[in-house]
Structure formats: C-alpha cells, structure tokens
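Fold this complex.
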Amino acid sequence: MELRRTIKYESDRVKGFGREVMRVPGCEQLEHCIQCGTCSGLCPLSIFMDHTPRQVMELTRSDFKNEVLQSTTIWLCASCYACTVECPKQIRITDIMYELKQRAIHEGFYPKRFPIPVLAQEFYKMSHKRGRVTENFLATVMFLKTNIPAALGMWRLGLNLLIRGRFPLKLEGIKRKDELVRMMAVVDKLSIDALNNDHQNGGHGGRHNGAH
Amino acid sequence: MDKVNGNHDVRIGFYVCQCGHNIAAMVDCAELAKYVGQLPNVVLSRDYKYMCSDPGQELIQKDIKEFGLNRIVVASCSPLLHEHTFRSAVEAGGLNPFFFHMVNIREHVSWVHTDRAEATAKARALARAAIRRVAHHRALEVKKVPVHPDVLVVGGGIAGIHAALTLAKAGKKVYLVEREPSIGGHMAKFDKTFPTLDCAACILTPKMSEVGSHPNITLWSHSEVVKMDGYVGNYTVKIKRKPRYINEDLCTGCQECISHCVYKEPKFHDDFNEGLGKRKPVYIPFPQATPQVVLIDPEVCLNFKRGVLTDKCKKPCVEACGDRKAIDFKQKEELKEIKVGTIIVATGFQTFDVGRMPQYGYGRYPNVYTALEVERLVNASGPTAGDVILRDGCHPKSIGIIHCVGSRDKNTNRWCSRVCCMYSMKLAHLLKEHTEAEIYNFYIDIRAPGKGYEEFYDKLLEEGVHFIRGRVGEVTDWAFIPEEEGKLVIRVEDTLAGVVRRIPVDMVVLATGLEPQADAQDVRRLFNMSCGSEGFFLERHPKLAPVNTFTDGVYLAGCCQSPKDIPDSVAQAGAAAAEAMVLIDKGHIEQEPNTAFVVEAECSGCKSCIPLCPYTAITLNEGSKKAVINEALCKGCGTCVAACPSGSIVQNLFDDEEVFSEIQGVLAYD
Amino acid sequence: MKYSYFPGCSLKGTGRAYEESLLPVLKVLGVELEELDDWNCCGATAYMAVDEVKACVMASRNLAIAEKAGHKELLAPCSACYLVLNKTKHYLHESPVVEAVVQKALRQANLSYSGNTPVRHPLDVLVNNVGIEEIKKHVKHPLKGLKVAPYYGCQIVRPYATFDDQYNPTTMDRLLEAIGCTMVTYPLKTRCCGGSLTGTLPEPGLLCSYILLKEAITRGADLIATVCPLCQFNLDCYRDKMVGRWGNETIPDPRNKDARVPVGPYLDIPVVFFTQLIGLAFGLSEKELGLQRGFAPMRKPACAQPQPAAA
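Structure:
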C-alpha cells in the first residue's frame, strides 16, 4: 500500500494567476463561484477528468497554476457550453477553459505526445500556412506525430472515407495567402505593446501570440 | 443691532461645543467663540465641553432668560443626533423651538480635517452662515394631525391574521381584507411545520376561527383593495367585494349544495390542492375555511356563460339549500369605502414558477412535483388522503429532492429563499414516514439558522436521508445502465465525496423558491410604497425599521417584505401591529413644519408643480385655479419650490432669505 | 432570397454530403447562395485553444468579406463555424481593445468590419424565413412512417439561443414533421457528441457518441438527423470501434420491450443530414443528395419509399 502526502502551502500558489485568467470578458464572474457543482454534474466528460470543472474553477481562483495547467480537464473539455448556460453565477466556464488551454500551450505544460494540444497546434499551423484546413491531412499529421500505431490502425477508416469520396486528395487553401500573413504580422506587432498596456488598465488582452 | 422681522432686535446666543476631544482636537473652540462674539447681532458667545448634557441644556435656558435672547445657534455634532435635544431645551427656555439653528462642526469639520487652521477657518465660515441665517427664522408650530383609530390589514395569511388579532385584542377595530375566498394563506396548505412537526392546520385554524368570531374584526374575504387615498392617520380605502353568489350571512357551511350539484363528480381544477385534485363549480376551498361559507365559480358553473347569468341549470343546489336561501345568483360586485388611520400590508409571496426551468422536467415527466404539490400529497386532508401515489399510479421507492430551484441563481432569482432547506428536510421526513423510500436531498448549502433547526437536520441524518452536496443541472429519463431504465435520472457531482454520481429515482421534488407576488408592482403603487430591486416591498431600514415603509402609517409584515419562515412572519406581524398602535394610542401625529406652501397671490395656476410632487401633495383648487399643498402629505423635499416658474412656493425653514443669507455667510460677503 | 454562403472546411471534406444536399434543396425553394470569395477557415474550436486574438482575426476576415459581398446575411451550415462567427461578433463587441487590433489587421487586406451582417444557420432560414408552409408545397414524397431522432448537437443552441430554445429546440422537429417524418422523443438532442475527442482521446470521445446512438435505437428511431458535419462524422464513422467496445451491451428489444438484445447489430442505424431528408421528400435523387457517402445505408421502412427523381 503506497502512501502519498498531499498538502498545499501558500508558496504553491502563483499569486495573481486567477486574476489574470479572470480578465477575459465574462470570466470575472469566477469571483462569485459558490462551488455548487452544476458544471461538473452536467459536463459529459467530467467522469474522465482528474479534476472536475468545479475543482478547476476553485484551483484557478486560488492561484494553483501548476495543478490547473497540468490537469487533464482542460484538454478533455469539448466546449459544449452545457456548464456555461446553467451556471447560477453566469461564469463563462468554457471561455476559462479556452484561456487555460492557451496558457498551457504557450508555456508548454503538456506531455510531449499528447494528441489534443498537438492537434490544436497543427490546426493553427495549417490554417496559417494555407488559410484552410484539410481534415484528413490534419488528422494524419496529428496521428503520425503522437501515436504511429494508432495511425496505422486507422487505415480502415481512411479507406472507407476514400471510397465514399470523403477523403480529399488535394490540400485546400485560399488564394490570397499573403493577406493572411500580413494580417497576422499586424497582430504580432500590436499585441505585445497595446494589449499589455491594456493589462495595466484592467481590460482584456490576448497576449498569447501563437504557439511554439 | 440689525432690525429684522419687524420691530424687535435679533439677539443671538452662540454656543460652541467641544464634544470632549471630538471637536476640540481639531477646531480651536475658544477662538471660534471669540470670533463669533464680535459678529453683528450676537449677544453672547460661549464654548462649552458638552452642550448636549443636562448642564449644557440648562445653560441655554438660563441665558435665554437672563440675556433676553431670541435666537440660539449651537455649533456641535450632526442635527440627526441632537437637533431635537436642543430644540426641546430652547422650548423649555420659553422660546419657539424653530428659532434654533444647528451647525455641524463635528462630522462636517473636525472629523474630516487634518489641519487645525483649515478646520477652524471652515468652522468660522459655517458659524457666520448660521448667524446670518438664524436672523431670518420665523416662529413655526409643529402640526398635530389626528389619527383615525381603525386599522386595515391587507392579506389574511398567518402574518395578517396575527396582526389583526393582536390589534383586535388591544381593542382596535380591524378590517381584514383577503383576496382568496378563505383566509389562511400558504400555511393552510402545509401538512406539518418545521422544526416541531406541528400540524399546520391544527395550529392555524384556532387563529382563523378567532378571526372569524372576534367582534373587533370585520373579515372581508374574496375581496380586494382597489384604491387608497389620504395621508397618515386619515386614509380612505375603497374595497371591492367580489361576488360569491352566496349570501355570507345566511350560509351555514353545511355544504349540502355541493353534494347536490348537477356535476356528480368533481371535474374542475382545484387551486387549493395545486391541481392534484378536482372540485365542483360550487365548492369550499378547504374543510376548515374561514369564513365557513361556500362559493360558486362563474367560469365553470352551468348557470353562467362567460361570467353572465344564463339560467341554464336546474339548480339543485338552491333546492338543497332550502329555507336558508343562501344562494343568490344575482349577487353583484360590491364597492365598500372605509376610513382607517393605519394600514398593514401582509400580502405574502408566490412560489417560483418551475416552467422557467424546463431542465428539471416539470410537466414533461409526470413524476416531477413542486414542494407545494407534495404538501398536498402527504396531507391527510389532501386529494389522496395522504397516500403518496404518483401521477402514473406508482408508489415511489426512491425520491430526489432538489434544493434551490429558482433561488441563488442569476438566471432566475438571485436571492436565497431562506425556508427551502428547512422545508425540504421536512418533506424528506414526511415522505420517508409515508413511503419508506430512499430519499436524496441535493443541496448547495444547508441553511438551518433558526431555533431547533440544526437539531432538525441532525434528526434527518439519523433517519438515513441522504444529503448530497451538488446542485442538480438537469433531470433526464435516458438510461445509461439497465438499472436506470424507466426511472428519472439525476446526474450530479457529489462535491464532498469528489465524484460524479448518477442516481435513478421514481419521484423528483423541486424545492421552489419564494418570490414577490405577480402583482406586487400594482399593489405597491396602490399603497404608495416602494419595492426593492428584487421586487419585494421595501422597508424603511433593513436593520432598524423592518416593518415600516417610507409612507407613514403603512406597515409591512411577513413574506411580502422578504422570504421568511412562520416564526419570523408572526414576529413581524406583532411588530407591525405595535407600530400601528404607537400612532393610534398617541392619537395624533406631529409633523415637522418644513412643509412648503403656495403664496396664492403669486401663483399663476400653471400646474407645473402638481405632477412633480413625489408625494402627490399638490392639487389645483378648482375654485381659485391656484395650486394648493396638503401640509399633511408634504414631506418638504423642495422639488416644487425649485420648479415653480414664478417662485411663488415657499418652504418653511428653507425660504429664499434663509438660504441666501447662509450662502453669503459662508462666502463672507458683506 | 439571396445569402452569402460560408461552407467551412468540413463541407469540402468529410462533410461533403451536407453541401451536396443543402444547395439543391435551397435551389428548389428559390434561395440563392453566393459562396464567399476566398473564405478562410473559421478556426473552429482548435484555433481558440492556441491564440484568442488571432482566432478573432481569422473569423473576422470572413465576416468582413461577407460585408463586402453586400448580401444582407451570411449562411453558415456547419455548427462550429456558426458558433465561432457569432462568438467572434460578441467578443469584438465586448472588447474594444481586441476589436481595434482586428480592424487594424483587416485593413492589411483592404477589409473592415462593422458587425452588421447577421450569421444564420440553415435550420433558422428554412423555418423562419422560407417557412414551413412554403416547404410543404414542394414535398412530392412525404416520408411517412419514417421515425427520426432529431440530433441538434451543442453548438447551435449553446451558448447563444438565437432562434430556438436552449433546452428543448424544436426547429428541426417541426421541419421534418412538415415533410412527413414522425419525430421520436429524444432527450439527448443537445448533448455533446464528443467533438474532436473521438479522434484524439477515443475512450471518452467515442463514449459520448455511442450514448447518442444507443438512445436513438432504444427509442425506436429508424435514423438520426443531424445539423453538424462533425456530429455526423462522429456518429457515422466509428461504428466498428463502438461495436468492438460496447457491442455486447444489452438494450430492451425495440420490438418486444420485455426481452433484451445486444446493441451491436443495431449500431448500423443511419445518420444523415436533415437536408438530405428534405431533398428526398422533394423528390431529389439519393446520389444527388450524397446519401451514398454515409457509412450505414439508409433503411427505408416498407410504407415509405421515396422514389429517385425521374431525371
């Protein structure tokens, strides 16, 4: 029988983490969370999470950044919004989950071959490069990067899609790719100054510019 | 010396109070007194340690006589504290109390400054202002308005009943007006009350009976207030008595008419039993109704079509009534007018409409009930004689009680309804007694603050009722495992155990919250009251005046002010009755004479002031075509004074000369 | 009626049948669509997981192109695209700082955003603009006897319930009843299908989709009608995996409630787009509507045999 010592000290908190997350519009309501558990009760994925959505809300509010960003919860969230519409304090739980996903990706808080953040980043890269996403290519890249045996196991699905015409063989893309490049460059340039200044004034800033 | 107000000199006595260190620490009182002493019209100027003390007050009285003073100014604390004290002292000294003026150099100067020189300078300016102002003060009389001794109590629930009985026993004549055909309110529907598990009817009906028979109480049930006019001590109220089609004085409550009705079986929606039972067109709301009189529902009685008498029915009811001749199909609505001095509003609450939360399945799944429906279900005099049999005919073996339905929720009502945790526990106990089922209470917090309440919670835990801390998001009927098939499933996070659970139950009970009645806004306008942001009637002060309103003479009691349990409703009812008795027994009201009046010669009859008055105190005199202000209603807010285009409205204690001279004093204009 | 049309990446890939069935149906009803010039990916749920502001920029480019196209409204059939575009509109309204960055970025493409173009879903347009009565006029073969489980998914009713009730939407129910179908009481009509988790984390993802299929079967549905390409994919394309994991679970026999049968064989219940059903009722051919692209052939009950269109 293995014993595990679990205790949290004030030094385990990353002071200010909760406040920063709450800067997203609507997420300031997190202050009012009464830990009723409606979110976890409704969430179809909560039974697979190491911390239920309610627990993640409390950990976030209490500044336990490491525990939150390392939890499986934020990746399991399928953003179905069932929690958000029922929350009696109107906390935008799904938006907080997105915010936490962004931070986890930005700071590298996930196991190396974990499919979900890998998928998100591949999606990001493909949509940046080509302006559109070709699902089958994206899924293939994701599998090859995370789980080659599983990738091989998908052969039947791939074949079935192919014979039914649901497996495009050409990559989709927009014509004016340069537009997208210029637009994103503007965001990169502006984000750092303007949005960080906005931080000082208590407004929202989306300061995560891109993935690794 | 200046000559003001005609022939006599103005002779002012000025007093600076040190208030111990409160003022003296920041304001140089001796210097202030010396400065004021050399201002025009000031006969004497003193500084003193505690002016409000007995010696301080006696000093004023002595000085008035000795020095022939005719104006007094005291520079000390806030008028809210001691204006009354000093006015009484001045009056005791033989002077009209309104020749007194008070300057606040504590809250307005000493307590908000850190620099002594600046503080003293400000105190000097304020004192200068006061000296100039008080010269213009006139002698005023406190108005005495007589109070009519009768009382109107609106609402015949437990709060209204208790208030009416308290007043009646004190010898006051009470009119008790109730909208429903019987008094008793929501409490009459309950089975047992928490935490004692007293039978609600057993403790309520003796009081109802007393109301019905007390000589000092005029009970008008099936009636509504339609208009209130007048002012504190003198209200004229119009009450509409809706037709029962039964002569109340002749009906003995034998109910023969009901058994002989052409409808052999009851067919119509029974409101009292929350729709779980049925009744006939002629009915009595419940067996212990007071007055013990039946009534006829014109919406469903065959004799009426769309409320109009048609004479289609053979009327076996009339025949059954026989010599009593109590049935009168020609009865019409009656308008009554009464005069009362005080009014107690005890109109109660309504329960949250569960239709606003479709996710709990009420209406969609037959075995989802509201708490009030369950009260009728477990009640021995209810539609099933206390047998807990569900709409689909089954007896439940497992029951889920969901707390906080329509409470503590920004999507519906934000407040906590205060009684639901306790009544949910009570229902859990009653249901366990009646069914031996597994019972689960799903809660966010257990609120058990009253006397004996926590002990009641202990008792429930001993009985094996499951308490799961987790707010329920939805009730569904889809099964994940075979054991759930055919049941209602509650999926909830057991937050204390830290695990998500699926619990199949046969019956779901929704602990609906309390909210203001649907017509609360109309009622509050009727009685010139305010509502808070949530819609409950607004009390004058949440801590120190919970049963008073901002309208003198109108009081609140019970759940119409905020959700509360029976002990608190009764306590508030007693408090409201006491407040009413304060006015009645004193016999008159004293009004601060800071009212406004119209100088008729200067009024142009433009009527601009009339709609502006928040207290509806101004009317147009049809004869002279000039505006007239009712002194008793006027609260001295000053709106009409400022608005009048011809400047013909003057306000006592705040007329132009008084105000302008104060401004000049502060600015040290000469 | 003319609308700007935003297909989204899925409708060109795994969700081809949605576009294939939507366009002819709208044509029959006189609704014209103009595909957005050089539209880009909306970002869906994945992009928002990486960078919020850039996600807004991606979505806003489409909104700005739609404004430039000049039609009054933008039609977005894919539920995720529909939600992302609407969410971006709300977001820009709430956060002036982000809006300023987005406007500046859009200027790089000679575009600007005013927020005046509503984003609509085909269900909304069909029922509320075209109208049920008009649709009934074009029904040649009412799908009588076909029992349908209406599956709305989560993104079109949450978090913004713009055209239907959040807990119990009925737009698709009314629409399919108008073409003759019998709707099955389906309590899971807005429960999540698992989204992209079916591919990345099969254990939870497939379970979400499996629950939906199992309940539809238990309720006696002949098929499931969907509005979202990802939902259709999840319910349609992983049947073999579901049979593998849960095929031996038992359900009450749909023909005889007292008996229990293994669910496996029933998992080939067809999953179609609602537009395909409407197309069938209008007399369009199965091939035209892309019905052959589903993994499970559509079973027709004996009393409802929509005939392929005569040319």
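Residues 1-7 of chain B have pLDDT under 50 and may be disordered.
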